[in-house]
Amino acid sequence: MTFAQRSLIDLRSDTLTSPDERMRATMAAAEVGDNVLDVDPTVRELEERTAALLGKEDALWTPSGTMANLIALCQHLQRGDRFLAPRDAHVLNNELGSAAWLAGGMPEALETDAGPGRPSLRGLARAISNGASTSYLAMRTTLLCLENTHNAAGGAIVPADEHAQLVAMARDAGIAVHLDGARLWNAAVALQLPPGALTVGADSVSVCFSKALGAPVGSALAGSAEFIEQARRTRQMLGGGVRQGGVLAAASLHALDRMNELATDHANAARLAAGLAELGWDVRTPQTNIVLAAVADVERTLHSLRELGILALPLAGRVRFVTHRGITADDIDTVLERVTSETARQQARGPASASPRMRL
Ligand SMILES: Cc1ncc(COP(=O)(O)O)c(C=O)c1O
């Protein structure tokens, strides 16, 4: 059977979901206002609910997680300030350098030596002391930017106690903390904790509604009332003020109601990883909804998977599969069946006869 004849199973990202009938009905019924001139009541409801969930005074809707992070960095950093973030953090690798270009920060990666996606206290202490000189020649370190879950580390969780210790160390050194929580909801559901338990002490937190939660658009930035008041101005400066945004915010409110359903995505990711491991793949056991596989040739494997009607993406030198609301346990079984039969077919033909492009 050719690729075109197979039903496609798309595991590239948890941003691929489309609003279902119920979400669309909620959007259609949303009460709206002009959120730039004064206020949109549904956007405001989402902001207040998000602030409460994250244990912060206030929150601000933004069109994307990238903009929420950028607003936070613009406010925490002065031009030329150094900021610290775990290696391969989204703010370091995937925001087109806007932390430096637009927010003026000098990035420094922290090794993730406490576990996947997790910087150690020792590493943080070293980075802080390297930047602690009071000489007028020394760069100032003013921000620690954490990420939970850590995307490039395969949706890896920073546990609540580790988060609190990292934050306490930064704050003792007079360094502000921003948490990129694009998938914080996944961490909270996996740990069976309220999201606010994972944000303790952070000066600002960004979250996304358009990833695993399945809303079509939208993120938020939370922090103190004063921080958010300024963030509203920064968002406007960046062109992120939208008017009748309640239509979008309604989808996010609906998505928050079903947050606990993320556990299904986690179970599906675990099922996929276990099945691939049984077939001899080098995969990390996922903590949430992202499975990373180390393969000999990422491009070749992605091509072979595509031939089987399975889509994945390259990330940090590995193949990344992401489970989401559009993927069922049956889909995972189909993926495993296709990979199993292709592997058997290749083995039957012998390693030399398999086309290099088709080798998994
Ligand atoms: C950890 C993390 N932060 C921020 C973002 C950016 O979000 P957006 O795509 O909404 O700009 C992403 C996107 O995947 C992400 O994984």
Brief summary:
The protein is α/β, with parallel strands linked by helices and 360 residues long. It contains 13 helices and 13 strands. The chain has helices at residues 21-28, 41-54, 65-76, 90-93, 98-101, 121-130, 160-172, 184-191, 225-237, 246-257, 262-278, 298-307, 329-349, and strands spanning 9-10, 58-62, 82-86, 106-110, 141-147, 176-181, 204-208, 219-223, 282-283, 290-294, 310-311, 313-315, 318-322.
Percent of residues in β-strands: 15-25%
Name the structural class. Answer: alpha/beta
Ligands in the model, by name, code or SMILES, are:
pyridoxal-5'-phosphate
Largest sheet, if any?
Answer: 7 strands, mixed
Task: Give the helix/strand layout.
Layout: E1 9-10, H1 21-28, H2 41-54, E2 58-62, H3 65-76, E3 82-86, H4 90-93, H5 98-101, E4 106-110, H6 121-130, E5 141-147, H7 160-172, E6 176-181, H8 184-191, E7 204-208, E8 219-223, H9 225-237, H10 246-257, H11 262-278, E9 282-283, E10 290-294, H12 298-307, E11 310-311, E12 313-315, E13 318-322, H13 329-349
Helix pairs in contact: 1-10, 2-10, 3-9, 6-7, 11-13
This protein binds pyridoxal-5'-phosphate.
Residues 64-66, 69, 90, 147, 151, 180, 182, 208, 210, 219 line the site of pyridoxal-5'-phosphate.
